């Protein structure tokens, strides 16, 4: 796995795509919580299903992995 794809990911998470159904900080439905974490904080819950993510933090950033959706967050 030496595929170094430069994922610049220029999609700002302004939440206008409507894909975030859950708060990524507490896992509650977005109807109950519009996001209680700060932007720089790594997500802890899957925005799609609200399952707790396995977050791996490294000096280069973080990778949040949902057991249902796979890698859902990266920085
Ligand atoms: Zn929240
Ligand atoms: Zn998920």
Please give the structural blueprint.
Layout: E1 54-58, E2 61-66, E3 70-74
Antiparallel strand pairs: 1-2, 2-3
The structure holds zinc ion (2 copies).
One zinc ion (ZN) is lined by residues 46, 48-49, 51, 66, 68-69.
Overview of this structure, please?
The protein has 75 residues and is mainly beta. The protein has one domain. The chain has no helices and 3 strands. The protein has a 3-stranded antiparallel beta sheet, with no helix packed on it. Strand 2 and strand 3 form a beta hairpin. The protein is globular and about 40 Å long. The structure holds zinc ion (2 copies). One zinc ion (ZN) binds next to loops.
Low-confidence stretches: 9-16
Helix content: under 10%
Helix-strand topology string: EEE
User: How does the overall form come out from the CA principal axes?
Assistant: globular
Strand content: 15-25%
What small-molecule ligands were found? Answer: zinc ion
Report how far the terminal alpha carbons are from each other.
19 Å
Q: How many discrete domains?
A: 1
Provide the spatial order of strands within the biggest beta sheet.
1-2-3
Number of strands: 3
